[in-house]
Amino acid sequence: MYMAYGWPQVIPLEQGLCPSSQQRIIYFKVINRLFLVVSPSTLELWSSSQHKVRLGKYKRHADSLEREGENLQAVWSPDTKLIAILTTSFFLHIFKVQFSEKRIQIGGKQPSGLFLANITLVLSEQVPFADKELTVSNFVSDNKHMLLGLSNGSLYSISWKGEFYGAFEIDPNSCDSSDTSTSPNSLGNGFASGRAPAGSVSNHNITRKTAIVQLELCLLMRLLFVLYSDGQLVSFSVSKRGLKQVEYIKPEKKLGSDDAVCTSVASDQQILAVGTRKGVVELYDLAESASLIRSVSLSDWGYSMDETGPVSCIAWTPDNSAFAVGWKLRGLTVWSVSGCRLMSTIRQNGLSVSSPKVKPNQDCKYEALMNGTSLMQWDEYGYKLYVIEEESLERVIAFSFGKCCLSRGVSGMTYVRQVIYGEDRLLVVQSEDMDELRILHLNLPVSYISQNWPVQHVAASKDGMHLAVAGLHGLILYDIQLKKWRVFGDITQEQKIQCKGLLWLGKIVVVCNYIDSSNTYELLFYPRYHLDQSSLLCRKPLLSKPMVMDVYKDHILVTYRPFDVHIFHVRLLGELTHSSTPDLQLSTVRELSIMTAKSHPAAMRFIPDRLPRELASDNHISSSEFLDTQPARCLILRINGELSLLDLDDGRERELTDSVELFWVTCGQSEEKASLIEEVSWLDYGHRGMQVWYPSPGADPFKQEDFLQLDPELEFDREVYPLGLLPNAGVVVGVSQRMSFSACTEFPCFEPSPQAQTILHCLLRHLLQRDKTEEALRLAQLSAEKPHFSHCLELLLFTVFDAEVSRQNANKKQVSGPKHAGNCSPLEKTCDLIRNFSEYLDVVVSVARKTDGRYWADLFSAAGRSTELFEECFQRRWYRTAACYILVIAKLEGPAVSQYCALRLLQATLDESLYDLAGELVRFLLRSGKEYDQASTDSERPSPRFLGYFLFRSSYNKPSLDKSNSLKEQSAHIASVKSILESHASYLMSGKELSKLVAFVKGTQFDLVEYLQRERYGSARLENFASGLELIGQKLQMGMLQSRLDAEFLLAHMCSVKFKEWIVVLATLLRRAEV
Fold it and tell me: Where is this protein chiefly located (predicted)?
C-alpha cells in the first residue's frame, strides 16, 4: 500500500513565448524512467529516475504558433520514440526523440547513465477534418496507430507515420443492453444498495451527434472506453491486432451513472474507476459483468462537491492496488481499492471556512493543490506521484510515497516487523517500546543506492530483527539490533544479481535471481553472515518466472504461471556459523498443476498443520518429529481479492471470502510462549475491515464447513491501513497520514504515523464462546502486563453485555419462551474470567457507566451484587472506583442504601484528603433524596438524573451549606453530612493544616464564613501573635506560589468575619501593609 512521506518536490518548467489562451499543461506522461510535459508552446523531456534532470526540450517559434496554432492535444508512443501533437488550427506535428552520446554528470565518482535527448520535428501536416466547428478528445495509441475522438461522435484513425485513415462512425446504441434497468435513476449517486447491473443507465439513446470527450484504451483487456459529453460511458472491444483494424471496434456495454467526467482502468485488477460531476469515484468490476463494487468520495470527511468540484483525473498505481483522485477545484486524495484513505492534501480543520476558489494569503499555512488538480501520473515504480495544478504552466509537483506491499508476490514479509519502503530508504515501525510506536527513517548507504536505485524488494526475517533489501542489482542486509549494513564486498558479483524476490529461511537469505543472458530464473541461498560467491550455499534453477513464493520452516513454495505449484524441502548438512559454510540440499517433495479459470494468485502462504496438545502427548509424538512434516494446506489470495484454501494433497480449493487486500497467517508462526495469537489461524483485511479466522472445533481441525469467521465488526478506521501484528501484545499496527506545517516551506510535510489497535478482546471472546476458559485465562495472564490490558477487558465485557442486551430485546419481540437453565451465559463466563484480575472492579463499573441504567440488573446479576463490589473497593481503599458504584447502588438497592454508603465513603475520603471526590459525594448526598424521587417516577429515563452531576464535574450552581439551605431541608442525612464536614474542618483548624483546609473548602463548598463565626473562640483561636506567626509560617511555606494563594484565600475569608488575630498574622506573612 502507498503512504506519502516528506515534503513534495517542485520541478520547474520553462515558460512559453507568448501568453497562451489556454493556461494549462495539455499533456503529461511517464514512461521508462522519463516523463514528457507538453504545454501550449513547448515540449520538455525529463528524467524521472533518482535525479530529476531535463534531458531535452523543443520550443515552438512565434510564427509557427501564429500560422499553425498552439498545441492542443498530444500523445507519446509507447516505445517513447515519437510524439504526436495536434494544434488548435488542426495541424498534426510528429516529433522524433533521439538520445545523444552526451552523458550528464551528476556528481560523485560513478557516471550517471543519463544522456541528453534531441527532439526534432519530422512531420507537419494539416489534418483532413480541419473544420472550425469540430472539437477533439485526447489521443490513444498503440505502437503503430493512434485514435482521436471527434465532437460528431466518430473516431479518427492516424498512423505513427502520419497516414490519415479517415473518420469512422461508432454506434454506442447497438451495444448489449439486455440488462438495462427500467428505472433511469437506479444508480443515484453510486451508493446503490447491493451491486447494480452495469447496464442500468437511463433509457434514452445516445444521439449520434454527442461529442466524444475522452478515450481510454486498455490493450491488455482489449477494451476501448469512450466517454461522451453528456456523461455517458460505453466500452468497446478492440481486435487482437490493436487499433489497426478500426472496423473491429465494437460496442459492448454502457457503464456508469450518466454523469461521468473522467475514467481510468486498472488492467491487472480489471477494475474501472469512473469520476463523476458530483466529485464521487465509482469502481466497476470488469470481470464480473461490470457491476458496481463501491463508491468513494470525501463526503464522509465533511467535504461537499461545492468545495472540491467534479473529479478531474484518476491515476492508478502501477500495481493497481490504489488510485489517486484529483478534483477540479481543490486537492487530491489517494485511496486503496478497499476504500481506505491513504493520503489527502486537503486539510481536516476549518472545513468550510473559506470558499474553495479563494487563494489564501501567503502568510497562512499553505495547502498543496489549493486551486485544483489538472493532470496526474505515477512513476513506473509507484514511488512518486507527479501532479500538475489547474491553471499552472510553471511547475510539476512530485509527492514521495513509500510502499508496504504486505503479503503479495515473491517477497516474503513477516507481520512482526512493519516496514514501508521508499525509493532510497526504509521507514521502519519501532515497536520495542510498546507505550509509543515510532517510525524510523533508515536511509540506504549511498554507495549502494546510487548504483542500484530504486529499492525493489524488502523482506524481514521471522523475528523481525534482520532486513534484506534489493535494488536494481545485488542485495544488502541490515541488522536492526546492531544498526549495521552488510553488503557484497565484490561489486562485480553484486551487479550479476537482478533480484526478483526475497525470502528468509531462518538465517539464510533466499534470492530469486533473473539471469539476463539466458532469460532464466534461479534461487540463490546466502547465509546472512557473509554476502559473497564463496559462501553461496546453493543455486537452484527454476523452470520459469515465479509468480508467488513462500517459506515455512524448511519448506519453500514456488508457483509458476498459469498455476503450477512446486514445493521444495531444504536440508542443511552441518552447522551454519560465521566460520563454516555447510552443504544445503534441495529436494522437490510435491508438484501440483491446477487447472482453474480464476484470476492469478497474488500471494500464497503455507498453513501449518496443528496437532492438539493432548493428541501429541497421548501418542508420544516428539515436537521435532511433528515439525518435520510438510504443510498440507495453503491460503491463496487472488489478484481480484478472493481468499481461498488449497489442499495440497488433492488439489481441491475451497473459497472462503472475497474483497480481501491482505492477510497474515498466524498459527504455528511464533516460537515464543508469549504469543497471544496462536489460537487464531489467520487474519485478513479488506473492505469489511479486519476479520479474524479460527480453526474449527470439529473432529478434523481444518474441516472446511466448520471454519468460524468471527468479528467482522473489528473495523479499522478508514484512515488507518494495517501493516502487521505484534503477536506478543495482541495488537494490530496500522499507519495513517499526518501533516506538519512549517513557516519556511510552501507545502506541508507528510508524516506516516503508526497506530495500534488491540484485538485481544476478540480473541478472548472467541475462546469463551468455545468454552475454552482455561486457554482464555492463560491468554489473559500473558497480556496482563500490557499497557492496554484494562481497556481490552472493558471492551470484552462491553461487547458481550451489549450482545446479551440485544439478544434479550430480540427475544422479547418474539414469544417469550422458558429460560434454559444449567450452562453459564456468555456474560457469566466473561465475568468469571475478568474476576481473576485486579482490574475487575474498575472494569465492571466502567461498563455500567457506558450502558443504559435499565439493564444494570442483568449486568450485576452476573458480575456480583453492587453493594458487595462497593464493599470490596472500600476495603481496598479504592475510593474513586467505590464512588462510581454509588450510582449503581442507588438504582438497584434504593436511595437509603446508597446514602449510607456515600456517607461512609465521604468520611473515608476526607480522612485521605481526597477533597475533589469528597465534594462530588457531598453534592450527590444533597441532591439524592429529592432527585431520586423525580427520577424514579420518570420510568422512561435510562439512568438517574444525578448521573451527570456525579460522573462529570458539573457546571451547575453548587449549593453551599448556608443557613437558608439547611433550614429548608433539615433531613437526617443532610445533618449527617454537615456534622461530618464540620468535624473535619475542626480537625484541620486545630492542627492548623491550612493548605488542606483551603483544598477542603474549595472541593466541598463548605461554608467557612459561618464556621469561623461560630468557632472564633474554639478551634480557630490563636493564643498569641508570636507563636501564631511561627506556627502558620511553618504550615504555609511562603516561598511557594500555591501557599501564597492559599494564604490570600484565607485572608479574604478572615476579613469578611473581621477575625483580627488571623488578619494580622496572614497580612504579615503576605507582607500586605494595607490590610
Answer: membrane
Place of cell 483525473: 313
Q: Is the peptide bond before 128 cis (omega within 30 degrees of 0)?
A: no
Distance CA 963, CA 973 (A): 16
601 beta partners: 638
Q: Provide the grid cell at 79.
A: 516505445
**Residue 908 CA to chain centroid, in angstroms?**
48
pLDDT, tens digit (0-9, with 9 covering 90-100), for 1041-1069: 888 888 889 888 888 888 888 888 888 88
Q: Cα Rg for the chain, rounded, in angstroms?
A: 37
CA distance 759 to 732: 7
Q: What is the 3-state secondary structure (H, E, C) of 322-391?
A: EEEEEECCCCEEEEECCCCEEEECCCCCCCCCCCCCCCCCCCCCCCCCCCCEEEEEECCCCCEEEEEECC
How many whole angstroms separate alpha carbon 346 and alpha carbon 836? 48
β-sheet bridge partners, residue 820: none
- Rounded to whole angstroms, how far apart are CA atoms 926 and 929? 7
Q: Residue 668 carries which DSSP code?
A: T
C-beta pairs of 903-910 under 8 Å, 24+ apart in sequence: 903/973, 903/976, 903/977, 903/980, 904/874, 905/874, 905/879, 906/977, 906/980, 907/980, 908/874, 908/877, 908/879, 909/879, 909/883, 910/980, 910/981, 910/984, 910/1000
Show Cβ contacts of residue 8 under 8 Å, excluding neighbours closer than 6 positions: 368, 397, 398, 399, 400, 747, 750
Q: Summarize pLDDT for 307-361 with one digit per residue, the tens.
A: 899 999 999 999 999 999 999 999 999 999 999 999 999 986 543 333 344 444 4
Cα→Cα distances 1016→262, 413, 1008, 1010, 1054, Å: 86, 78, 12, 10, 10
Largest CA distance in the chain: 117
- Asked if 349 and 339 touch (Cβ cutoff 8 Å), the reply is no
Neighbours of 207 (CB within 10 A): 10
Query: DSSP alpha helices (H): ranges in 149-285?
Result: none
Separation CA 719–CA 904 (nearest Å): 49
Q: How confident is the model at residue 200 (pLDDT cuts 50, 70, 90)?
A: very low
Could you give the CA distance from residue 23 to residue 913 in angstroms, rounded to a whole number? 73
Q: Which candidate, 151, 136, 152, places its Cα nearest to that of 91? A: 136
User: Packing angle between helix 866-875 and helix 895-911, nearest 10 degrees?
Assistant: 10
CB contact at 8 A, 229 and 260? no
Q: How far apart are CA 1011 and CA 990, in angstroms?
A: 13
In angstroms, the Cα distances linking 1052 to 337, 865, 1055 are 67, 48, 5
Cell reading at 1046: 492559599
Helix (H) or strand (E) holding 144: none
Contact 222, 240 (CB under 8 A): yes
**What single letter denotes the amino acid at residue 325?**
V
List of residues 6+ apart from 77 with CB closer than 8 A: 83, 84, 141, 143, 160
